[in-house]
Every structure is written in structure tokens, then in C-alpha cells.
């Protein structure tokens, strides 16, 4: 079964204007819908829980009548245990990583465990500095795995796309996300 990494986030106004001001929240939601619709249930998605994305993922999967239990692995650090959304219970595979007593160290441990999987591709949607960091860490750990920052969602994904160059141009122009993900992740509909 093909396995894809997802790094996604919804920027918050109070954190950093450069992410918030360019974010397209509708595109973030619709790209997540397109990703889920394109690759579940025939593939697996691995992602780290994010307070806005985890509930959105769960809702979209429910709306599309998709069973996420055998096709989604959600990573969470025990450091954030008190903040886990109730939607976590919908995921059968929740990998809890160590609480190292400090936010950044705990996140680093979670990311290290998450990236210690084999991947066929990675998708980066919206987000803030965590998305940029996950791009760098993922590329270092999996340099030959294709990565797709969805620039139409704005925020960190747009920054990555603009910085990297040599990426498929439709990542910055295509809003038909179902088609986009089938084309780039599954090799269909090109």
C-alpha cells in the first residue's frame, strides 16, 4: 500500500502575519478534501495532529464515508495530551510519542518517529513555521521522495513553493485538488 506524509496547518492571526495574510482557508480545506478523496482508502496517510487539521480531516472522511481506521496513522506527542481534540478517538492508529517536558524537544521526538516510516510522497498544505520545518526534516530524511507544497493554499506551502523552484507549476495554479492529487500521487489523470 502506498504511504503518503501530510503536513498541514491553518495559520493563526496572532502568530505570524506572513503566514496568516497569504493563507486561503477555503483552499486549505478543499485541498485536504481532495487529498483524502484521491488516496483513501487505497493508500495510507501519516500525519502529525494539528488542532485545526485533525478535526477537519475527521469531518471530511466522515462526509466522504471513508473508514480511516486502517488507512490513517496520526502521530501525537504526549506533551500535548491535555489539548488533544476529541476527534483523535476516531483514528484507530494514534502513535503517541514521549513527553520530554519541553514543547520543541517533544515535537522533535514526534517528528523523528513519524519520519521513520517509508513514504511514496509528501504533501504540504497551508501552515506556518512547523510546515517549513517539516519540509526541511522530511527532505533530509527522504531526499528521493517526491514532495508537493500546495502553493494555492498560501502560507508556508506557498513560501516553500516559491523558495524551492523546479516544482510542478500546477501546484501554484490548480484548484481542482482531486485531479491534482490523482495526477501527482497516483499517476492517474495526467
Q: What fraction of the residues are assigned to beta strands by DSSP?
A: 15-25%
How many H/I helical runs? 7
Low-confidence stretches: none
CATH architecture: 3-Layer(aba) Sandwich
The first-to-last residue Cα distance is: 21 Å
Oligomer: single chain
Would you mind describing this structure in some detail?
With 190 residues, this protein is an alpha/beta fold. The protein has one domain: Rossmann fold (3-Layer(aba) Sandwich), CATH 3.40.50. It is built from 7 helices and 6 strands, in the order E-H-H-E-H-E-E-H-E-H-E-H-H. It has helices spanning 17-20, 25-39, 53-63, 103-114, 129-141, 155-164, 177-186; strands at residues 3-9, 44-48, 72-77, 93-97, 121-126, 147-150. The chain has a 6-stranded parallel sheet with strand order 4-3-2-1-5-6, with helices on both faces. Helix 2 packs across helix 3 and helix 2 (25-39) packs across helix 7. It starts with a strand and ends with a helix. The model has no long low-confidence stretch (mean pLDDT 92).
Characteristic key phrases:
globular; 190 residues; Rossmann fold; 17% strand
Summarize the model shown.
The protein has 190 residues and is of the alpha/beta class. Helix content is 39%, strand content 17%.
Task: Present the secondary structure layout.
Elements: E1 3-9, H1 17-20, H2 25-39, E2 44-48, H3 53-63, E3 72-77, E4 93-97, H4 103-114, E5 121-126, H5 129-141, E6 147-150, H6 155-164, H7 177-186
Parallel strand pairs: 1-2, 1-5, 2-3, 3-4, 5-6
Amino acid at each position: 500500500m502506498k504511504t503518503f506524509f501530510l503536513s498541514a496547518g491553518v495559520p493563526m492571526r496572532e502568530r505570524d502575519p506572513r503566514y496568516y495574510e497569504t493563507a486561503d482557508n477555503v483552499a486549505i480545506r478543499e485541498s485536504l478534501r481532495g487529498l483524502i478523496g484521491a488516496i483513501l482508502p487505497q493508500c495510507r496517510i501519516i500525519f502529525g495532529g494539528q488542532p485545526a487539521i485533525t478535526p477537519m480531516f475527521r469531518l471530511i472522511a466522515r462526509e466522504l464515508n471513508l473508514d480511516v481506521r486502517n488507512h490513517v496513522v496520526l502521530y501525537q506527542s504526549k506533551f500535548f495530551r491535555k489539548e488533544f481534540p476529541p476527534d483523535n478517538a476516531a483514528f484507530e492508529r494514534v502513535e503517541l510519542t514521549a513527553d520530554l517536558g519541553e514543547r520543541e524537544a517533544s515535537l522533535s521526538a514526534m517528528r523523528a518517529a513519524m519520519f521513520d516510516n517509508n513514504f511514496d510522497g509528501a504533501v504540504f498544505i497551508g501552515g506556518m513555521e512547523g510546515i517549513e520545518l517539516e519540509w526541511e526534516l522530511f527532505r533530509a530524511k527522504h531526499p528521493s521522495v517526491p514532495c508537493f507544497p500546495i502553493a494555492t493554499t498560501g502560507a508556508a506551502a506557498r513560501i516553500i513553493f516559491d523558495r524551492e523552484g523546479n516544482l510542478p507549476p500546477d501546484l501554484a495554479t490548480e484548484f481542482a485538488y482531486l485531479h491534482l492529487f490523482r495526477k501527482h500521487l497516483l499517476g492517474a489523470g495526467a
